[in-house]
Design brief:
Blueprint lengths: L2 H28 L7 H19 L2 H12 L4 H18 L3 H23 L7 H18 L6 H9 L5 H24 L15 H15 L6 E5 L5 E5 L2 E6 L5 H19 L16 H15 L3 H4 L3 H7 L1 H4 L4 H7 L17 H17 L7 H13 L25 H20 L2 H6 L3 H11 L9 H9 L6 H15 L4
Parallel strand pairs: 1-3
Antiparallel strand pairs: 2-3
This protein binds zinc ion (ZN).
The site of zinc ion (ZN) has 4 residues, from helix 10 and helix 11.
Length: about 500
């Protein structure tokens, strides 16, 4: 091992420890922590954040990184140093006092947003949002390379190699092909019945069946736990401790598919090798690649008729009253029903990425075109009407529905749609390599999971999403696979063509 790298080790371990503790508090906050803990815990989290900041920006670390870069490091060490250098530059460019102000604003922002959403009152959130946009633009300008657009700086944080030019092309393809196709689907004569998915589904039964399905798709309860939170999410501490959450309501499919979705995220993290875990490269390659795995499990596997062949009886047994008389075919149609709606997180597979496209277009206007924040609710509503044919009646079901902007996260949303498209490209390739549906019908998900582990999970952050996609499928990112997948599947279901 290089001497400089050896000296860097203890700093890396300290940074990792602060980060892990912070993440664990965040998980706790959303699950088990008592309601009144929030403010005091925030102080602890604040201290952990600034400790992390000071380790990463320590002059000694900077010196060692420079030395490491001149030495011949192994692949993993080189990648860790690269990640560290990037993180250092990101934090260093922003003056510490401005960073602190922004962090505080973002944490208050979330509270103000939550109140505004509850009261359906955009105006009470608008001044905070304006400030968050200003900070975001200012920070991006500190970090922009010469000639680089501000929104491109932000996009790069979540998905390397996907700038506005690439995304304009991606979303342009979706707009041109999916919007008219969706119109045909919604105007088709086919009526899909799904009322049996809503009803008296007891929480404890949903939990039991959720645990069954998590395990069935490959979640390892010896290295992970499942809890309840308002919105489902996954937290990764290391490859022996990955935590997922879910929530229960009267719609059984909500918890069922959120469990499978979060299991997809978790399986990715559980597939990170020991050699990489607890380092700066010991996590998923990117937001988009992460979402590609969760949405792969949720949709390409979980909403596939073949998936249900061996296990539908299990679900019926647990809920005889609701599902005994519902044949498999009818159930599978119901879980794939298309219904343009207002809320992204409840969207069906076909309309999902159009929700994301709207957010992308608006973020671009906010960051690049100085869009007036006060005009947001109307622009939001107009776009929903244009692309999805629905119009929110208030801000809560419109512009206030997502938490991201209140946390100062701009540039995050596109990853959700990219992930779906990555997944479809992988699926296309995998079908040529294995009898995908045959494996699902035989209950052999392990073979599919192992393919993903070998080709994606095991690399952690050693490669970018785009590199990996190219290496696995032999082709650069190509959104047409995603469109083709959706048009084939939903065209069949609704008896329409492009
Ligand atoms: Zn997700």
């Amino acid at each position: 091992m290089s001497k400089a790298y050896e000296q860097l080790q203890p700093y890396l371990e300290r940074a990792q420890a602060f980060q892990t503790a912070k993440v664990l508090f965040e998980w706790d906050n959303e699950t088990l922590a008592p309601k009144k803990a929030g403010q005091n815990t925030s102080k602890v989290v604040g201290t952990l954040s600034s400790e992390y900041f000071s380790v990463i920006t320590d002059p000694q670390v900077k010196k060692l990184v420079k030395e490491c870069r001149e030495e011949d490091l192994g692949q993993v060490e080189a990648a860790i140093v690269r990640e560290l250098a990037e993180e250092m530059e990101k934090l260093e460019r922003v003056p510490a006092n401005e960073y602190r102000e922004f962090s505080q604003l973002a944490s208050e922002g979330t509270r103000i947003w939550a109140d505004a959403r509850r009261n359906k009152d955009f105006e009470s959130f608008a001044p905070t949002l304006k400030k968050l946009v200003e900070y975001t633009k200012k920070f991006a300008s500190y970090r922009a390379k010469e000639g680089q657009k501000l929104y491109d700086v932000l996009l790069e944080d979540y998905e390397k190699g996907f700038d506005m030019e690439t995304l304009d092309r991606f979303f342009g393809t979706l707009r041109q092909q999916l919007v008219p196709f969706l119109k045909k689907v919604t105007e088709s004569e086919v009526e899909i019945e799904d009322d049996f998915l809503t009803g008296d589904y007891k929480d404890e039964d949903q939990e039991a069946i959720g645990r069954f399905f998590a395990e069935y798709v490959g979640f390892d309860f010896d290295r992970g736990v499942m809890a309840v939170s308002a919105h489902p999410f996954t937290t990764n501490l290391h490859n022996k401790d990955v935590r997922v959450t879910t929530s229960y309501n009267r719609h059984v499919d909500d918890s069922l598919f959120s469990v499978i979705h979060e299991s997809g995220h978790a399986i990715y993290e559980l597939g990170i090798p020991d050699e990489l875990t607890q380092t700066l490269v010991g996590g998923g390659a990117s937001m988009g690649m992460h979402e590609s795995q969760s949405r792969f499990f949720e949709n390409i596997i979980g909403r596939n008729e073949a998936f249900w062949v061996p296990v539908y009886a299990k679900l019926q047994e647990r809920f005889p009253q609701q599902l005994e008389d519902v044949p498999l075919e009818k159930f599978v149609k119901a879980i794939n029903k298309v219904e343009p709606s207002l809320i992204r997180t409840q969207a069906d597979e076909l309309t999902y990425s159009l929700h994301v496209m709207i957010r992308y277009e608006i973020e671009k206007m906010l960051i690049e075109e100085d869009l007036d924040v006060d005009k947001l609710p109307e622009i939001w509503a107009d776009k929903y009407e244009e692309y999805l044919g629905v119009r929110p009646k208030d801000a809560a079901e419109g512009v206030l529905q997502d938490i991201h902007w209140s946390q100062g996260s701009f540039g995050y949303f596109p990853s959700y749609a990219l992930g779906s498209a990555f997944g479809a490209q992988l699926y296309h390739y995998m079908k040529g390599q294995m009898d995908f549906e045959g494996l699902l019908r035989a209950g052999e998900i392990g073979t599919i999971r192992e393919f993903l582990r070998q080709h994606i999970h095991q690399y952690g952050k050693l490669k970018t999403s785009r590199q990996m996609l190219k290496e696995v499928t032999g082709e650069d990112f190509n959104p047409q696979y995603y469109i083709d997948y959706l048009v084939e599947k939903y065209g069949r279901l609704y008896g329409v063509t492009m």
